[in-house]
Amino acid sequence: MAKKRKLYIKFDENKRMDYLTGFHKRKLLRREKAKQENEKLLKEEIKKVKNAYREDLLQKIRSTKLPNFLADDLHVVTSVTTQDAGDHTVSVEEIDLAQSHYFMGDNCEVVQ
């Protein structure tokens, strides 16, 4: 019969600590990854809300019809003054909005 060899168990404290603290490290990594994912989702949601708001605002602007305030359309030009400013010629047309349907009222101080 052959002689049996003795079994020696070597206990390494550093490997034990790595094994036991590995659970905590992986848990912290999972938490950090989840936190980053939540921040990413929050940023995407904020971006979606901003884009929806922007599109709604642009749609409102596109649907708003503003009156055309060109003097040719109003037919209420009272006087035209032309001035030469060097390289440019400036034409100033005074219009009377009170005679048009764009009249909003007098621009004067309120007396009480």
TrEMBL record:
Its main location: nucleus. Residues 24-55 form a coiled coil. Transmembrane segments: none annotated. Keywords: Coiled coil, Nucleus. It comes from the Eukaryota. One of its GO terms (cellular component) is nucleolus. It is found in: Nucleus, Nucleolus. InterPro entries: Nucleolar_protein_12. This is Nucleolar protein 12. It comes from Schistocephalus solidus.
